[in-house]
Specification:
The complex is a heterodimer.
Chain A lengths: L1 H16 L1 H25 L4 H12 L2 H12 L2 H19 L1 H30 L10 E7 L8 E2 L1 E2 L1 H10 L3 E15 L4 E9 L3 H5 L5 E2 L14 E4 L1 H8 L9 E4 L2 E8 L11 E4 L17 E7 L5 H18 L9 E6 H6 L3 H32 L1 H9 L4 H37 L15 H19 L1 H8 L3 H5 L9 H36 L10 E5 L10 H16 L4 E7 L8 E3 L1 E3 L10 E6 L3 H5 L3 E4 L4 H5 L4 E5 H8 L8 E4 L13 E8 L14 E5 L9 E6 L7 H11 L6 E5 H45 L1 H9 L4 H29 L1 H5 L10 H27 L3 H6 L2
Parallel strand pairs in A: 5-10, 7-9, 17-22, 19-21
Antiparallel strand pairs in A: 1-2, 1-11, 1-12, 3-11, 4-5, 4-11, 6-9, 7-10, 8-9, 13-23, 13-24, 14-23, 15-17, 16-20, 18-21, 19-22, 20-21
Helix pairs in contact in A: 1-2, 2-3, 2-4, 5-14, 6-12, 6-14, 6-15, 6-24, 7-10, 12-15, 12-18, 12-24, 13-16, 14-15, 14-16, 18-24, 18-26, 18-28, 19-23, 24-26, 24-28, 26-28
Chain B lengths: L14 H9 L5 E2 H11 L8 H13 L3 E7 L5 E7 L1 H26 L2
Antiparallel strand pairs in B: 1-3, 2-3
Classes of the chains: A alpha+beta, B alpha+beta.
Chain lengths: 889, 113
C-alpha cells in the first residue's frame, strides 16, 4: 500500500506544520459530540446540568481520547526532539558565557588552523600543478667547505649535454635559462623576463597551452621560423587577455617572433613572461654579444630509481666532468638532488613540520578547552541529571538532550570557524611577500583540511558532552542527590584530567610564544644590520641595454656618460653612478692573481663594475688611497679598488696601494678584456656583497668602461624621497636612448626590504598569529577551569569565611589552585622549548634559540595572564556573602 | 508508532472499523452521527464507546480509508464530516465479505449438536 503510506506521511507532515490547528480540531470535534449528546439527553427530559454531565460520563476520559488521537497524528520523536532543541537553547542561554566561550574557542581553533594550514599546503607542500613534481629533480654541485646553501645549480650547455648523455637515472632532462627580452611597444620599451626552454620542456611539465599550442620539436630545429609562448600573467597584464594576439608577430630583441601559444594561469616555470625555444650547444662562444646561457637543469627520475641511487650515479658522472672542466668544480664536492618541492621548502623543512605540528596542536588546544568546559559543566549538572533520571527520564532521553546541546555548540562553532578561516586566509594572502613563493602557487582554502578540523571540532563536544549522561545512567542515583555539598572531593579524576590539559596548553602556548618571540627578535636584529653602505635615499634601476646595439665598452660608455651627466644635473639629485649590480650583491666571481704572490690554495674574489660616483652614492667608507677619478673611468684605465676583506685575505701586511691584481675571468667575457691586470688605487670598508645573511667576501671594483659585457644599472642618491624622482629618471633614460627599458626600479630600501626582509617578516607574522591565537585559547582555558573550580568551592569558602577566614586567604586559596597549574605548564614549556631549540635555530639570525630574554619574557607574560585569569574568579568567589555562599546551589 | 489494540467495548475487535465504514456508505457524516446510526440500526443493541470511536475514525483517516471535511451541522454547529474514500469502499466490501464468512462459520459451529 505505497500510496497509503505516502498519504499517511503527508497528513502527518501537514499536522506537524499546523500543530495548533490539529489541537483545535480535536477539541471542536469532541465538543460537538458532547453538545449533540447533551441535546439528546435534554430532549429525553433531563435538566440542563444533568444532560451535560451525562454526556461527559458517557464519553469517558476526554483527555485520553485527545492524547491517543494526537499521538496518531504526529511524529512523536520529532516533537520531542524539537522540545529538546528549545530546552537546550534555553539552558545554553542561561549561561551565555559558557556558550560564547565554547563557540568562540571552536571557531578560533577551526578558523586559524585551517587558514594557516591552507597557506602552508599551497605555498610549501603543493605549490606546483605539474603531475609527478615530486620526482622532478634539480642537480646541485655542493661545496661542503662553504655554507649549507652554497652550491652550483646552473650549467653551461656542454655540461648540460654531458649530464644528459652520461646519467642513467633520468628518463627526461630539460633546462631553462633566463634572458632579458626587450619589446619595443612604440611608446617605450618593455623588458620581459625571457625563459629559454630546451626541447621537451613543455611536455616535461605536462601542461597543454591555454590558447594555441606549446613548443614543438620542429621549433627547436636550426632555421625554424622564430616563435615564442606567452605566460598567462603577462598576457593579462600587457595584452589585456586579448586572444587576438595569438599568431601575431612581435619584434623581441630585434627578432621577429610569432606568438604560437598562451600558457594557462598555473604554468609559471622559471617565472617567465615569454618562453623561447633554445637548444643548448657545446660552443662556449658568446652568442650575439651576450654571455652563453647558464642552464638550470631539471631531470625526471626513471620509475623505481630512488634519490640516493640517482645521487650515486650522478656523483660518478660529476667526477668525470670535474676532470674535463676543473675550473667549474671545487676540490671536494657532493652531488645533491632536490625535488621541485624541496626547491621551495629548502632548509625550512624542519620548521615546516614544526609549524604543521603547531597547527594541529592549536586545534587540539581548542578541543581540549571545549572538552574541559563541557566536563566542568557536566560535573555541575550531575544533580540535575540524577534528578531527572529519578523522575523517570530514560537514559536515551538524557543522552539525546545532551547531544542536542553539544550539536548546537558544534554547529555554531563550526560556522564561525569557516567564516574565520575564509577571512583569515584573505589577510594572510595579502601578507605573503611578492616573489618569495613559486609563481605557480595559488593560495586557496584547503577543503580536506577544513573538513577534518570541522570534523574534529564537531566530534569533541559530542563526545565530551555525553559524559554526564553516561555518568547519570551508570551511577547510583541517590549519591549525587545527597552530595549537595559540592564538596572538594567530588570528581577528583575529572579535576586531574582538567589540570593536565591546562598544563599541556600552557606548555604549548609557551613554546609557540617563544618561537614567535625569537623570530621577532631575529627580524629586529636583521633590520639593524650594518650594511657597510647607506641604503636610504637611493633610487635604483636596472637597465638592460639592447644587445644588438650595445656590445662593446665604447657603445656602453656612450650611453652612460651622457645619462649620468643628465641625472647629476637634475634638481634633488645628490650624485649618480653606474653599477653592474644592485647591492647587497656583487656581480662576478673570479680567481684573482696578485703580482709577486704565489699561493697553493684556491683564491676567489667577487668583482664588479662601477663609475666614479659609486662610493659616494652608497656612502662606502674609503680607508686608504683614493677612489676612481672621472678621467680614469672615461679612459677605461686598468685601476681597481678593493675592500678590506680582500686586503686582509690576499694582500697581507703589504701596502695595498700600487699592487697589481689579475682577474682572468675577464678574458672569457663576450667583450674580452685584454691583459686583465689592475693596479690597486684605494681600499674601502667592507660592505655586504652576498646578501644580508652571509659575511662579506673579498671584492674588487673596476671602471665600468673596461668591458661592454654584463648587466647594467644606475644608483642615484637623492636629497628627498627617492620615489619622487622616479619619473624624472625614466624620462632621462628615454631621452638618452628610447629603446632602453627600466626594470626593478624603486628605492633601494624597498628593494632590500622585499628581497631580504619580506620572507622573515612573513615567518614571524605567521608564528605571531599562531602564538596569539594559542595565547587567547589558553587564557580562556585557564580562566574557565579556575572559575569552575572556584564555583565548586564557593560553599567551602563560605564556611571558611564564616569561621573567620579573611578575604585575602580566600583569594589566595583560589589563586594557588590555578597558579600551580600555570607554573607547572611554564616549566614543561620551558623544557620543551630548550629541547626543541635546534629546530628553529636555522631560521634565526644573531639570536640564540635559547635566548634567555625571550624565555623570561614569555614566562612572565604567561604568569601574568594566568594570575589575571585566576584573579577574576578569585575575587568574585571571595566577595560573596558567607550566607549566600552557604546556600549556593 | 504501532497501532494499539483498541478496546472496542462490547464489540468484537475489528468490528468497530467495519461498522464505521458501513455507517458512512450512505454519505458523509460526523462522529456523533456515526455513533448514533450504529446504536439505532442495531436496534439499540450496540453501543459505541466514544473513547474508542474517535481514535478509530482518525486511524481510518490516516490509513486513507476515510477523508474528512469540516462543515456545518443541521443545528448550525461546526462539525467534522467523514466520508468513504475509494480505498474505504473497497475495504468495506472485503471486510463485509470476510465478516459474512466468519459469522456464518461461527453460526454453523454453534448449530451443530
Amino acid at each position: 500500500m505505497g500510496s497509503g503510506w505516502l498519504n499517511n506521511f503527508l497528513l502527518r507532515l501537514k499536522t506537524l506544520v499546523q500543530r495548533k490547528r490539529l489541537d483545535r480540531d480535536l477539541e471542536d470535534e469532541v465538543a460537538f459530540h458532547l453538545a449533540m449528546r447533551a441535546e439528546k439527553n435534554r430532549a429525553a427530559g433531563a435538566a440542563d446540568d444533568e444532560a451535560h454531565y451525562a454526556a461527559h460520563r458517557q464519553f469517558g476520559n476526554v483527555t485520553s481520547v485527545r492524547e491517543r488521537s494526537r499521538e496518531m497524528w504526529t511524529f512523536v520523536s520529532l516533537e520531542t526532539l524539537w522540545r529538546d532543541f528549545t530546552y537546550a537553547l534555553r539552558t545554553l542561554a542561561k549561561r551565555p558565557g559558557f556558550a560564547a566561550t565554547a563557540i568562540l574557542t571552536l571557531g578560533l581553533g577551526i578558523g586559524s588552523s585551517t587558514a594557516i594550514f591552507s597557506v602552508i599546503e599551497n605555498v610549501l607542500i603543493q605549490p606546483f600543478p605539474y603531475p609527478g613534481a615530486d620526482r622532478m629533480m634539480g642537480l646541485e654541485i655542493h661545496d661542503p667547505s662553504r655554507g649549507e646553501s652554497e652550491g652550483r645549480v646552473e650549467y653551461p650547455g656542454s655540461e648540460f649535454l654531458d649530464y644528459i648523455e652520461k646519467n642513467q637515472v633520468f628518463d627526461r632532462v630539460i633546462a631553462n635559462a633566463s634572458q632579458d627580452v626587450l619589446y619595443d611597444m612604440g611608446d617605450g620599451t618593455e623588458r620581459f623576463h625571457g625563459v629559454l626552454t630546451t626541447p621537451g620542456t613543455f611536455e616535461f611539465f605536462g601542461m597543454p597551452a591555454l590558447l594555441g599550442r606549446i613548443m614543438e620539436a620542429s621549433d627547436y630545429e636550426p632555421g625554424a621560423p622564430p616563435v615564442f609562448v606567452l605566460g598567462y600573467k603577462t598576457w593579462i597584464a600587457n595584452f589585456g587577455g586579448d586572444p587576438d594576439v595569438l599568431n601575431k608577430a612581435f619584434v623581441l630583441n630585434g627578432v621577429q617572433r610569432t606568438l604560437v601559444g598562451i600558457m594557462p594561469p598555473r604554468f609559471g616555470w622559471g617565472a617567465g613572461d615569454v618562453y623561447f625555444p633554445a637548444k643548448p650547444t657545446r660552443s662556449t662562444a658568446p652568442v650575439g654579444g651576450e654571455f652563453p646561457p647558464a642552464w638550470y637543469l631539471i631531470g625526471h627520475l626513471k620509475p623505481g630509481v630512488t634519490v640516493p641511487e640517482a645521487e650515486a650515479d650522478l656523483t660518478v658522472v660529476a667526477n668525470q666532468l670535474a676532470r674535463v672542466y676543473p675550473k667549474s668544480y671545487p676540490e671536494h664536492f657532493t652531488v645533491k638532488l632536490f625535488s621541485l618541492t624541496e626547491m621551495v621548502v629548502g632548509r625550512f623543512r624542519a620548521t615546516l613540520y614544526l609549524t604543521l605540528a603547531a597547527v594541529g596542536l592549536l586545534l587540539l588546544i581548542a578541543c581540549a578547552n571545549v572538552a574541559n568546559l563541557l566536563l566542568a559543566r557536566a560535573t555541575a549538572r550531575e544533580r540535575e541529571f540524577a534528578l531527572r533520571s529519578a523522575l523517570g527520564a530514560s537514559r536515551w532521553r538524557l543522552i539525546r538532550q545532551l547531544l542536542v546541546e553539544s550539536l548546537i555548540l558544534s554547529v555554531c562553532g563550526g560556522a564561525l570557524g569557516v567564516v574565520l578561516a575564509t577571512m583569515g586566509l584573505q589577510s594572510l594572502v595579502s601578507l605573503v611577500p611578492p616573489r618569495t613563493i613559486a609563481s605557480e602557487t595559488v593560495i586557496r582554502l584547503n577543503a580536506p583540511v577544513l573538513l577534518v578540523s570541522l570534523g574534529i571540532a564537531i566530534l569533541t563536544p559530542l563526545l565530551f558532552g555525553l559524559v554526564p549522561a553516561l555518568r547519570a545512567a551508570r551511577k547510583d542515583l541517590e549519591q549525587p542527590l545527597r552530595d549537595s555539598s559540592k564538596g572538594t572531593t567530588g570528581a577528583s579524576g575529572n579535576a586531574r584530567f582538567r589540570d593536565t590539559v591546562i598544563v599541556g596548553e600552557v606548555a604549548l602556548s609557551f613554546a609557540l610564544l617563544v618561537a614567535a618571540g625569537l623570530l621577532m627578535r631575529s627580524f629586529m636584529a636583521l633590520r639593524q644590520i650594518d650594511f657597510g653602505f647607506r641604503s636610504d635615499h637611493v633610487l635604483v634601476t636596472r637597465l638592460p641595454l639592447p644587445p644588438d646595439r650595445y656590445k662593446t665598452a665604447a657603445q656602453v660608455t656612450s650611453f652612460f656618460r651622457p645619462l649620468l651627466a643628465r641625472l647629476k644635473s637634475l634638481p634633488g639629485v645628490v650624485d649618480a653612478a653606474e653599477s653592474s649590480t644592485l647591492p647587497p650583491y656583487a656581480s662576478f666571481a673570479s680567481e684573482p692573481e696578485v703580482s709577486g704572490k704565489i699561493h697553493p690554495e684556491k683564491w676567489t674574489t667577487l668583482f664588479q663594475l662601477c663609475s666614479e660616483g659609486y662610493f659616494s652614492v652608497l656612502h662606502i667608507q674609503l680607508l686608504e688611497g683614493r677612489t676612481f677619478s672621472e678621467a680614469e673611468v672615461n679612459d677605461a684605465r686598468h685601476r681597481s679598488i678593493v675592500n678590506r676583506s680582500f686586503v686582509r685575505r690576499y694582500l697581507g701586511r703589504d701596502n695595498p696601494i700600487g699592487q697589481r691584481i689579475r682577474l682572468s675571468d675577464l678574458e672569457n667575457f663576450p667583450d674580452k678584456v685584454q691583459d686583465p691586470w689592475f693596479e690597486v688605487i684605494g681600499v674601502v670598508g667592507d660592505a655586504l656583497n652576498q646578501g644580508l645573511h652571509e659575511p662579506t667576501q673579498p671584492e674588487v671594483w673596476l671602471p665600468y668602461t673596461v668591458t661592454g659585457s654584463g648587466q647594467r644599472g644606475v644608483l642615484v642618491r637623492t636629497a628627498g624621497d627617492p620615489m619622487m624622482l622616479m619619473n624624472s629618471l625614466r624620462l632621462e633614460v628615454w631621452a638618452t636612448d628610447h629603446s632602453v627599458p627600466l626594470t626593478y626600479t624603486g628605492s633601494m630600501d624597498d628593494f632590500i626590504s622585499s628581497q631580504s626582509f619580506a620572507g622573515p617578516r612573513f615567518g614571524f607574522v605567521m608564528m605571531t598569529i599562531f602564538a596569539a591565537v594559542g595565547f587567547v585559547l589558553v587564557s580562556i582555558g585557564v580562566y574557565s577551569v579556575v572559575a569552575y573550580g572556584a564555583a565548586r568551592r564557593t560553599q567551602e569558602i563560605g564556611i571558611r569565611m564564616a569561621l573567620g577566614a579573611s578575604r585575602g586567604s580566600a583569594i589566595r586559596l583560589v589563586l594557588s589552585m590555578g597558579m600551580r597549574v600555570v607554573f607547572l605548564g611554564i616549566v614543561v614549556g620551558l623544557t620543551a622549548s630548550l629541547a626543541l631549540s635546534r629546530i628553529i635555530a636555522g631560521q634565526l639570525w644573531q639570536v640564540s634559540a635559547r635566548d634567555p630574554i625571550t624565555m623570561a619574557g614569555v614566562a612572565l607574560l604567561l604568569l601574568a595572564t594566568g594570575a589575571l585569569a585566576c584573579w577574576v574568579p578569585a575575587t568574585r568567589t571571595s566577595g560573596v556573602e558567607p550566607m549566600v555562599a552557604l546556600r549556593y546551589e | 508508532m504501532a497501532e494499539r489494540n483498541e478496546q472496542s467495548g462490547e464489540l468484537l475487535q475489528g468490528t468497530l472499523d467495519l461498522l464505521i465504514l458501513k455507517a458512512l456508505v450512505r454519505g458523509p457524516m460526523h462522529g456523533y452521527g456515526v455513533a448514533e446510526w450504529i446504536h439505532e440500526s442495531s436496534h439499540e443493541v450496540l453501543r459505541v464507546e466514544e473513547g474508542a470511536l474517535y481514535p478509530a475514525l482518525h486511524r481510518l483517516e490516516l490509513r486513507g480509508l476515510l477523508s474528512s471535511e469540516w462543515g456545518t451541522s443541521d443545528n448550525n454547529r461546526r462539525a467534522k464530516y467523514y466520508a468513504l474514500t475509494t480505498a474505504g469502499k473497497k475495504q468495506l466490501m472485503e471486510e463485509t465479505e470476510y465478516w459474512r464468512r466468519m459469522s456464518g462459520a461461527v453460526a454453523r459451529v454453534l448449530q451443530t449438536a
